[in-house]
Amino acid sequence: MVPEILGAAAAEITLAWEPVRARTAIMVARPRTLLLASVNPPRTLGLWEKELLVAAGATGLANSEAHDLTGEELAAFAPEVIVIAGDELEGLTELLGWFELPAVTDHEIYLVAPAYLSEGGEGLGEAARVLATILHPARFTEMLPTFSVQLAPLELFERATEEDDEATEEGDETDTNG
């Protein structure tokens, strides 16, 4: 009974993203894409991540199980696009080599509503469409659902300068003294 249930679930997932996979199947350019379920520490999505990335027209650092990534692993993979579930970003810029990653230097980091990457079944069809639109905007010109995707804030792309640090410290002193 369990194998039949699992088989039915797998068939439902495959069917959900098949329209997107069919449109990306002929694509040669498949950007190295990293899906992060969380960022502190950076953690991959796992589960259906590899198949979702293939359906969306990407290659990934995918594993069947979610796992934490080190700065060294990120640097070795050198993602061209990073997609983060949610808007919690604390700690990313402190990772070794963060500002040298192609996704960072090319401003290709996106925040998506967590539900797009965590819901199974038919929701994965929408996840594949959202990812394909991020990765291949010229091929997927349909409008994304409102507020489903945002470009990451500038703080992820630019190193803080000493002036920024001093201004922050001065602001902190004003807050405590004023």
Question: How would you portray this structure in words?
Answer:
The longest helix has 23 residues, at 2-24. Helix 1 (2-24) packs parallel to helix 6 (123-135) and helix 2 packs across helix 6. The model has no long low-confidence stretch (mean pLDDT 81). With 178 residues, this protein is of the alpha/beta class. It is built from 7 helices and 6 strands; from the N terminus they run H-E-E-H-E-H-E-H-E-H-H-E-H. Strands 1, 2, 3, 4, 5 and 6 form a 6-stranded mixed β-sheet that branches. It has helices at residues 2-24, 49-56, 71-77, 102-105, 115-118, 123-135, 162-177; strands at residues 32-39, 42-44, 59-60, 81-85, 109-112, 149-151. The protein starts with a helix and ends with a helix. It is 42% helix and 14% strand.
Summarize this structure as a short list of keywords or feature phrases:
globular; alpha/beta; six-stranded mixed β-sheet; 178 residues; 7 helices; 6 strands
Provide a compact summary of the structure:
The protein has seven helices and six strands, in the order H-E-E-H-E-H-E-H-E-H-H-E-H.
The helix/strand order is: HEEHEHEHEHHEH
Per DSSP, the total helix count is 7
Summed over residues and divided by their number, the pLDDT gives a mean of 81
Beta-strand content: 5-15%
Which residues sit in consecutive blocks of at least 5 with pLDDT less than 50? none
Roughly how many Å is the radius of gyration?
18 Å
Overall spatial form: globular
Helix content: 40-55%
Biggest sheet details:
6 strands, mixed
Q: Would you tell me the structural class of the helices and strands?
A: alpha/beta
Query: What is the strand tally?
Result: 6
Distance between the termini: 68 Å
